[in-house]
Amino acid sequence: MLSLQDLETPAVIVDLDVLEANLARMAGRARVAGVRLRPHAKTHKIPALGRLQLAAGAAGISLAKVGEAEVFVGEGFEDVFLAYPIVGAAKARRLLALSDRTRLAIGADSVEGAASIGEVFHAAGLRIDVLLKVDCGYHRVGVAPERVVEVGQRVAELPGIALRGSLRRMPLNMPGMNRPPGAVLRMRTSTIVPRPPGASTKPCPPFRAARPRTSRSSRT
Questions:
Q1: Cα–Cα distance between 46 and 53 in angstroms, integer?
Q2: For a 10 Å CB count at each end of the chain, is N or C smaller?
Q3: Residue 131 lies in a domain
Q4: Which pLDDT does position 196 carry in this prediction?
Q5: What is the chain's Cα-based Rg?
């Protein structure tokens, strides 16, 4: 049996006991909160770990890129959400090729970006589920909260698009950002769209990590 000192470096070492404990803790928090858990797999990009997340109670997985979706769908994952806004006909055609093998949804933060995806699906006689991404303080992607209803209405009218709701990533270190902005609440209660099926939060629980005992030479 290999020891740590026998491994070629760099190498990823996973403590299975710690991993399973983290998965159970995250799933437990989701159950207590009464939400369906959809963890983000972009951090590990490993289908085997994704299957452990599903076995622990996740309803599906979130990913960031079309290429990640192609890998996970190829490994049999049947419920995939791309949380990062996807734009462009080329990516839309790749998503279309996956759509008959998985329940697929994407994020969007502009009418133009959503339209570029919807056109491809509409031409195929299909619609793709979309959640509108809201900027809650990071200012990287997402619709400004005061424009959520306006943009949501326009996206909902696009051919090939089925707007299912909104998503947000809550900054953990910004005062006053511990609840959905009012515009998101108005969108939820408006007649634009129903609440998204299988909606879930993406909690950020404290994780426990185990540091493997290694010699200085094993890190070279």
A1: 11
A2: N
A3: yes
A4: 44
A5: 20
- Rounded Cα distance between 19 and 16, Å, is 5
Please state, in angstroms and rounded to a whole number, the distance separating the CA atoms of residues 118 and 173.
Answer: 35
What confidence tens digit (pLDDT) does each residue in 55-108 have?
999 999 999 999 999 999 999 999 999 999 999 999 999 999 999 999 999 999
Residue 95 sits in which domain range? 11-200
pLDDT tops 90 at residue 123: yes
DSSP characters for 63-119? Answer: ESSHHHHHHHHHTT--EEEEEEEP-SHHHHHHHHHHTTTSEEEEEE--HHHHHHHHH
Q: Are 5 and 219 in contact (CB under 8 A)?
A: no
- Whichever domain contains 173, its CATH number is 3.20.20.10
pLDDT for 4: 84
58 domain-assigned: yes
Is residue 3 in a domain?
no
- Residue 215 belongs to some domain of the structure: no
SS3 at position 124? coil
Q: What is the mean pLDDT of residues 150-161?
A: 95
pLDDT at position 145, please? 87
Report the C-alpha gap between 107 and 166 in whole angstroms: 8
Residue 165 pairs in a beta bridge with 131
Cis peptide before 205 (omega within 30 of 0): no
Please count the structural domains in the chain: 1
Region of poorest pLDDT, from 65-69, 139-143, 193-197: 193-197
